[in-house]
Amino acid sequence: MWKEAAGEADGEAGFGEPAGADAVARAERRLGEPLPAALVSLLGECDGIVGHDGTDTVWPLDRIVEQNLCFRSDPDFARLYMPFDALLFFGDNGGGDQFAFVRTPEREDVFVWEHEDDSRRWVARDLRDYLARSLAGGGDDWYR
């Protein structure tokens, strides 16, 4: 289902091997929160999606965990940016902007965090919509 959705938007998309249920459970324990159901479903089919120009449209599970833990605990980030605790990052545009689900309150929508100005804004109604928009031929700044 997810590979098909990504392939429809970008026939050249690359896919990681599926992440197992045990790996997802370990990731959720490390993060201290459940992953969104759609993301768990995608990771169970492919552990990450690479789009045009090598863009990490959806990160592998290990990177999702490491990036989120880093963003939430880095003291330099705490001085520079608003808190990241309500966000769950899962992909990027290759230029520093990150894509995330809002976890508090829990939403299916996808938001972009733009690192230059710390803005956070809506870009897609759900993960499927995000894949369609981000993998289409609009380039790395498709959301602007």
Please summarize what this structure is.
Helix content is 39%, strand content 24%. The chain is built from six helices and seven strands. The protein has helices at residues 2-9, 21-31, 37-45, 61-73, 75-80, 127-135, and strands at 14-15, 49-50, 56-58, 87-92, 98-103, 106-114, 119-124.
Written overview of the protein:
The chain has 144 residues and is an alpha+beta fold. Helices cover 39% and strands 24% of the residues. It contains six helices and seven strands; from the N terminus they run H-E-H-H-E-E-H-H-E-E-E-E-H. A four-stranded antiparallel sheet has the order 4-5-6-7. Helix 1 (2-9) packs parallel to helix 6 and helix 2 runs parallel beside helix 4 (61-73). The chain starts with a helix and ends in a 9-residue tail after the last helix. The mean pLDDT is 95.
Name some characteristics of this structure.
144 residues, alpha+beta, 4-stranded antiparallel beta sheet, 3-stranded antiparallel beta sheet, 6 helices, 7 strands, globular
Write the layout of secondary structure elements.
Layout: H1 2-9, E1 14-15, H2 21-31, H3 37-45, E2 49-50, E3 56-58, H4 61-73, H5 75-80, E4 87-92, E5 98-103, E6 106-114, E7 119-124, H6 127-135
Antiparallel strand pairs: 1-2, 2-3, 4-5, 5-6, 6-7
